[in-house]
Amino acid sequence: MFQLGKTIVSEDIIEKDFVCNLSACKGACCIDGEAGAPLDEAETQKLKEIYPVVKPYLRQEGIEAIEKQGTFIKTENGELETPLINGADCAYVIFDKKGTALCAIEEAYNQGEIDWKKPISCHLYPIRVQDYTEFSAVNYHKWEICDDACTLGKELQVPIYKFVKQALIRKFGEDWYMELEKVAEGLKK
Fold first, then answer.
1. For the chain, how long is the longest CA-to-CA vector?
2. Is 22 buried (19+), middle (13-18) or exposed (0-12) by CB count in 10 A?
3. Among 99, 101, 100, which residue's Cα sits nearest to residue 91?
4. What is the Cα–Cα distance from 25 to 31, expressed in whole angstroms?
C-alpha cells in the first residue's frame, strides 16, 4: 500500500494485469452477485435525471424493476446501489445478439444521448474505492468470474491501473493519475 494525496492505494492495481474479456465472461459482473453497483449520492440524482433517456434502451424487466424500486436503492446498511431484477441482474443491463451483458446507460452515452458514461464503480471495475472520513482506499477486487480478464491482461501485459485509466482520471483527476504512473515506474525498478 502507498499513499497518493488523500488516497491509500493497493500495489495490486500496478502489479496485477487485467483486460475485460467480454467474449469469455459475457459481462457476468453485471448479472452475478447479490448487490447492485455501488453509487454515490450525486450519482443517484444523475440516474433520476437520465432515466427518461435511458428507458428506451432497457429491457422490460429492467423498466419494471426500476419503476417498482426506483432508479436506485438504499440498502439496510444505508449503501446506495443500482436496483436488481429479481435479486440478480442489474436493472440497467441489456444484452447484445451474442447474449453479452451490456449497460443501457453506456449505450445511451455511446449514442450521444447523455453525457454520463455509467456509475463510477462500474467504470472503475476491477478497482473498488472505499471512502472514509480522511482518505479513500483504492483496491483491486478479485472475483473468479474475471479470471479470463486476468489471463488476457497478463497476455497483453496491461496492468489494472492502465486498463482503467480513464475511470481513474474521472474519479481522481489527471494529476493524481500522473502521480500514480510515477509510482508505478518506481516500482518497476
1. 54
2. middle
3. 101
4. 11
Half-sphere exposure of 111 (CA within 13 A, CB side): 11
Residue 184 burial by Cβ neighbours in a 10 Å radius (0-12, 13-18, 19+): middle
d(CA 175, CA 123): 19
The set of cell numbers assigned to 68 is 417498482
Residue 63 Ramachandran class (φ > 0 left, ψ -120 to 50 alpha, else beta) = alpha
Amino acid letter for position 71: T
d(CA 41, CA 44): 5
Of 49, 45, 39, which Cα lies nearest the Cα of 75?
Answer: 39
**CA-to-CA distance for 88 and 142, rounded, in angstroms?**
19
The pLDDT tens digits for 16-47 are: 999 988 778 787 777 877 788 999 999 999 99
The full 3-state SS of 98-110, as one line of letters, equals: CCCEEEHHHHHHH
Q: Which residue has the cell 459481462?
A: 27
- pLDDT at residue 93 is higher than 90: yes
Question: What DSSP state is assigned to residue 55?
Answer: G
